Amino acid sequence: MKSLASTNPAVVILSETARPLAETIAAAIGGTIEAAIRSETDETAADLLRRLFADGRPIIGIMASGALIRILAPVLADKRSEPPVIAVAEDGSAVVPLLGGHHGANDLARKIAEAVDGFAAITTAGDLKLGVALDQPPQGYALENPQDAKRLMAALLAGAEAQLTGRAPWLEASRIGFSDRGEVRLTLSSDARAPEAEELLYRPKSLVLGLGAERGAPPQEAIALAEAVVAEAGVSPLSLAAVASLDVKADETAVHAVADHFGVPARFFSAATLEAETPRLENPSDIVFREVGCHGVAEGSALAAVGSDGALQLPKRKSQRVTAALGQAPSPIDPSTVGRARGTLFVVGIGPGDEAWRSPEASRMVQAATDLVGYSLYLDLLGHLAEKKTRHDFDLGREEARVCHAMELAGEGRTVALICSGDAGIYAMATLVFELLERGDLSDAARRIAVQCAPGISALQAAAARVGAPLGHDFCTISLSDLLTPWEDIERRVKVAAEGDFVIAFYNPVSKKRRTQLAFARDALLKVRPADTPVVLATNLGRPGETIRIVPLSGLDVDDVDMLTVVIVGSTNTRVVATGDGKRWAYTPRGYARKAGTGIMGGSEAAE
């Protein structure tokens, strides 16, 4: 499963006057605008900034640096894992990296300053004098001993020279003084050895571990074989760029377990691509070809990943149910250009649509997605979260086509968010995802995607919260739409729920063509419940035009209900209470006493 940690920079504004500058910055760095404007949201600037910081997102605050420092000071803990934080003057004149200078803040500040014609106030000594941060190598390299970087950078800043072993373009372009007799050694090597004294040992990520595995192979077996191959090859695991395999193994737990173990992505190739590597295989197998359409999975995947200029570092090794081989490229590999990823489908419930009612997990999923699929209105409700995403808009209806499209997109290796209102698992699209998986009406790639669902605030929860606590005791939900459910089944459920004295939340109570079902439900309930039973009518929850009404069951008028209304009918225990401000609240006691009862149950006994 993909991590939800987002590196998508957040450009934070406190007023609309800062939005034009924020738009320029966001466009330059690929970020999104996050607004802490009280007229738009109940979230304060401090709450927003601390939430973004906890999520690990780089923060660019268009605000005073002192205010930004004071807000984040209570949550600072470990500078090695904290995201970059940058303050930008409201006129764009100054761009000040406050935190994470060696973790991307300095580079971001320079890019922002260039975009807004401002000045990047870089204060990190290494960047200023050496032109490089030795403890933060660029993508494609890893530092074996970051704990020694500060001491050795100090030596270079004091005038020491460096000795460079291996090819490192970013070091060669720096202002470091190099000498064959340099006191500080900067070494590029994949060899499995410990750093020597006065040495920074960099690992070029030029190795790929090719894996083959029987279906259901034990993850620990795969990890043990992978570690053995790395050890036999005599290389550092930090030089691994990826784990690669055949595309039919995209959902194989053992393959992903190895990738997670080494902290690298898993990438996958078609059988045709691996078969093209047959002339370079050291151990081609006709048996493997008959099974999967290529003559070698482990060696073929390793070779395909390292490219035509690469070679096998170590040929296939085998355990009981897993094979592994190691390939080496002449230079670091960008895993995103190798094969394809296992696709991921996030099934996201965004609640009624109001940002304050959207869970942080749902927001992180949307941020992590490359593609958004959903009804156009739901995608619009995402606001700035939908920026820079590929949208796939659908009209109401065609739900199966919508879900199938999302799954096939994920099958291409994309990260897709299927957007639903309310909770995706309550009368929504999550059910169709698993129905399609069971039916098999998908491509092979789409059947092998990773799926993760995020809960959302459902309409019944939103309505209950607005009006009090009508769901305080046993309740059920019933959809009155007979498009997918036979009416006789709906009719039976209404009668049983009425007799069981459940609080009932009715979804899809009416439509333009369907006006009789709610009237039937009302009349069936009136046979067993008092005429003054409270009924909650909640329309446009969390959106403009929201209305909440409490009416007696006998006064429930179908013409007062539309397709955007949730109807909650109380049980015989549900009550209405008024507060001093004149507001009426509905609630169902959590105890078992009848309305005529003498007390309120409390404590642990009531909850048991």
- CATH domain fold name of the largest domain: Methyltransferase, Cobalt-precorrin-4 Transmethylase, Domain 2
- Report the helical percentage: 25-40%
Rg computed from alpha carbons, rounded to a whole number of angstroms: 30 Å
Mean pLDDT: 90
Name the shape in a single word: flat
Low-confidence stretches: 1-6, 595-608
Overall tally of structural domains: 5
Task: Assign the CATH class of the largest domain.
Answer: Alpha Beta
Side by side, the strands of the main sheet go 2-1-3-4-5-6
Structural class: alpha/beta
Q: Could you give the distance between the termini?
A: 37 Å
The proportion of residues in beta strands is 15-25%
**Could you state the oligomeric state of the chains shown?**
single chain
Label the CATH architecture of the largest domain: 2-Layer Sandwich
Give a structural overview.
The protein folds into 5 domains: 10-123, Rossmann fold; 141-204, no CATH class; 207-337, Nucleotidyltransferase, domain 5 (2-Layer Sandwich); 344-457, 3-Layer(aba) Sandwich (Cobalt-precorrin-4 Transmethylase, domain 1); 460-603, 2-Layer Sandwich (Methyltransferase, Cobalt-precorrin-4 Transmethylase, Domain 2). The chain has 608 residues and is α/β, with parallel strands linked by helices. Helix 4 (105-116) links the parallel strand 5 and strand 6 (119-120). The protein has a 6-stranded mixed beta sheet, with helices on both faces. It contains 21 helices and 28 strands.
Secondary structure layout:
Layout: E1 10-13, H1 19-29, E2 32-35, H2 45-54, E3 59-62, H3 65-72, E4 85-88, E5 94-99, H4 105-116, E6 119-120, H5 125-130, E7 141-143, H6 149-157, E8 162-165, H7 169-172, E9 184-188, E10 199-204, E11 207-213, H8 219-233, E12 240-246, H9 253-262, E13 266-269, H10 271-275, H11 286-292, H12 298-306, E14 311-318, E15 322-328, E16 344-349, H13 360-368, E17 371-375, H14 376-381, E18 390-394, H15 399-411, E19 415-420, H16 430-439, H17 444-447, E20 450-454, H18 459-467, E21 468-469, E22 475-479, H19 487-499, E23 503-507, H20 517-526, E24 534-539, E25 547-552, E26 565-569, E27 575-578, E28 584-587, H21 603-607
Parallel strand pairs: 1-2, 1-3, 3-4, 5-6, 8-9, 9-10, 11-12, 12-13, 16-19, 16-20, 17-18, 17-19, 21-28, 22-23
Antiparallel strand pairs: 4-5, 7-10, 11-15, 14-15, 23-26, 24-25, 24-26, 27-28
Helix pairs in contact: 1-4, 8-9, 19-20
